[in-house]
Predict the structure.
Amino acid sequence: MKRTISILCLLAFMAILTADQSEAIPAFARKYGFNCNMCHTSFTKLNDFGQRYRSQGYQIPGQVGGEKTAFEKALPIAFRTMTGLQAAHAQGHTTSGFVLNGLDLLAAGVMHKNISFLMIYTPRIDDPSADYRGYDSAGPSQLGALESANIVFSNLIPNVLNLRVGRFEPAYHMVSSKRSYYRLGSYEAYTVETPSNSFVFDNNQVGLEATGHIQSGFSYACGVVNGTGGNPDNNTYKDIYATLSKVIGRGEGQSAGQRFGVFGYLGWQPTVVPNDSAYIPLPEGDGRGNNEFHRIGGQASLNWRTFSLQGLFMQGQDNKAFNSISPDEKYTFTGGFIELDYSGLWNNRLLVSGMYNWVTPPDYNGEAKVSSTSGLLRYYLGDWTAVNVAIHAEYTHRQIGDTDPVKEDYAALLLDFDF
């Protein structure tokens, strides 16, 4: 495995030396004649201007009402995919292979003054059908999904109230996993699944969300959603959430300013199937026997020059009706991550990042603590008009348990490109 990692790092370094002088949507850059880094520190992470542009419903701040609509310009469609070499080492076995990491189709733009849209579709891909570990060889490598489809009504009260309706990445994702640089090392706290509760924190949700800026550098978000991702929901109750953040200094806390925030999510799921024969979560059921769960936490984003340090801590608790491991106790877990990013060289062409994240289940649970350490190097190619191709080298070490732990290692050398 050490030899494989050394080869991947060498290839990444050679590619940087020989290169020409990158959830991005290059269609926006084409629309305005901007470089991609106008909105991104390094794609896919938004900078302060990009965050404000998104909040304004894909309208340039200070120019609201002067935008060309999607009916007056070419339809703003973009594509993203990644291809390259990946390797894995687990349980004494090493595998590697070339991969094609799916395809995202993105469209977003202004439909009318202060009315805009976003759609992200991941089409089903049957060929190639297997990943480099031989998984899913009999099925598609990517299932078709409408990941996002929403309408944004901006400036209902200027700067104070915007509404988003449809399926979207909810604001309680105070650090966006959809715009993360990492492909192998996910935010463990976002993806954890607790016993008999089908809620996954990382999922995009269907519902209604209000956002806005208020006085003294505060911003808020609150929403009502199904809480079942893209699955149907016949629950008696809807889930609710809220966030509140404060930026100290100039900026949005993305690439300038220091941002501190808190979030809370309160959800309900039915635990009774139609024949009342078992206690299991059933979002598609008849909505009886509802019990609550919550996720609460805090986030900080600290920026200095081209360094960005961000961290998140979350505590989750499920009603004991969901706890199939110990039915007399509530299921409580904690998790979080710390990530440090550095952007350098001309036009932020070089990105270096390191991340540590973890999930700690309850003491009585037979499940073990999960922790992972990741490192990443990206170099962006292209000229001023289109920095939208990146050489991506990444390594993740994942460990499950403290005594006699299960260890996993993943490495990748990929090309990430948007157009």
Summary: The chain has one domain: 2-418. The longest helix spans residues 2-17.
